[in-house]
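Open question from group meeting: does this chain pack into something compact, or does most of it stay loose? Before anyone orders reagents, we agreed to write out a predicted structure and look at it together. Recording both the input and the output here so the notebook holds the full record.
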Amino acid sequence: MRASLAVLLLSVLPVPSAVPALAAPAAQGPGAGPAAEVDLRELLRRVKLERDAADVKIYGQMASAGSPAALKTLQQAIQELRERRTLNTAYGAVHRFKGSPLDAKARAFLVGDVLRHRRPDNRAAACAALARWGVKAADELERVLEKAEDAALRTRACHALLPLLAERADRESVERVLTYATPGGQTLAGIRKVLLPVRGSKVLKLYHRALKDEDRDVAWRYLLLDVLASWKDEGADALILGLLEDPDPVLVSAALEVLGKSKRSHLVRRLEPFLRGEHPLVLREALIAVTRLTQGDPYWLEDVLDFSRRREPATRMGAAVALAEIRTEPALARLYELLDDEDWRVKVEVVAQLQRLHRKEVVPLLIERLDGASARLGRDMHLTLRMLTGQDHGPRSARWRAWWRAEGEAFRLPAPADTRKAEAARQKRRAENSTQASFYGLEVVSQRVAFLIDRSGSMQGRAMLQPEDRTKKPRVSTRWEVAKHQLMTVLPKLSEETLLNVLFFGTDIRPWQDELVQLVPKVRDQALEHVRKFPMGGSTNIYDALELAFADERVDTIYLLTDGEPSSGKVVDPTEIRARIGRLNRTRKVVIHTVSVGRKSRFLRLLAEENGGLYTEAL
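Structure tokens returned:
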């Protein structure tokens, strides 16, 4: 009787605990599956016992209950944690309450921890979780902007608010972005959307202050130059002129290009001093900019003709572009003479300008020079002939001469769009049927080659290694071993005349040699042994690897292989890397082929396209 009464009393008394032993069925949010019961008390017990060593799936299981008790349990669990990795996961699980009846409470909890938690790692993890709400947590993110003491937290909040700031499109939004945002990666496009539509003298004052801030990252100056270039008014031009005083020659050359396209002839006097500069890239862009601003002034042609005979190759390259811009008969006659310049880079520039000119008279000039060209220059000439004519009579002149004798007089150049389409189809067929030395299917045509190979930790990822005997099945290996195998397969197929270097890059750059070396048998054996034994490790420092390869002036072709996005080095943002390398390459004329391992890479595809190379994937 007493036992029965005790059971009856227990069945009606409440359970004395903030965390129920068995939570209510999980809340059914939009698209949720069947409700599942979660033992919140047991999950919390495991976190208190194991702390950061607990299975990180626990936090998602807690949140999946979707009840007030679940949110409270998750909050209690977070207080037991210390490591950044587990804090990120646990705070991230709070995002599961988005759109539920507890949405507001979840956001209130997160913003409270962002602003008041004593530990920096908790504040950072809570802010990252809150940012996942985006503009739906606008009020809370605004509070972070106003009250957070940590600049990194304000930056993260600002990035989450970028879509809302772009909608507002006012000076206050511009000021917030300039104050708190950091351009780079995915935020770059969002920042640009905020800045581009907002104009006026007050905004120019904000830009002026930002450009004068020496502590501001250089990426801001590139971004603001891009924004100001779209204004096309004198106030913006004044700020761009100020950038000509920057110590970064790449930025100065970019500013010169913008001013050269402004059509404001009165700027010529401001640009003329840069024609006497020492940096080749700056001198080249100044020459082209002044040419565009003088708009065919016959007296300026005399100066350009003089520049085309200067000692510095970069000056003659700039003069080649200027001559192609002027397009008078004397200008074109001198441009054609530069096809026989002593420097290969000048000749590459001239060939590029001849393709852009799209004139029939160029065809026989290129045909006559095919046989005497180096491997790299011959490649460019052959490509230009194909792009001009839509024909392909091979890399030597004999068949081209025969064709031109038979059809040249009546031949009409096809439209560039048609030849581009034909060339794309030709490249596809060639890749499928190539028998030449190749690296991941990319033919090695040049004899002045640098291979840049990613050795970062992620290259330990799984990949399939194709055996030499194609009748056998591929075996499971790593991306690193496959990359080394590809390199060791192509090296024996290169001629002894090839000049070669191999640069492995992780956090730092490890070149095999200080400069290109001739691949004689003894050196080839040393290269193979170096590749075979080289260890892996580190992050992904792409920019510094490219910069070091560019430092060897004999390099005319690069093969870049990586399985990830840039993560270390002088420049990390992919867009900025492309912009800087593309501009440096205007005086180097290096072809950059890229190989993306294990993933598709828009960055690598564009890097190759913008630098005359091909892109391939090893997925």
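Observations to bring back to the group:
The radius of gyration is 31 Å.
Residues 416-433 form the longest helix (18 residues).
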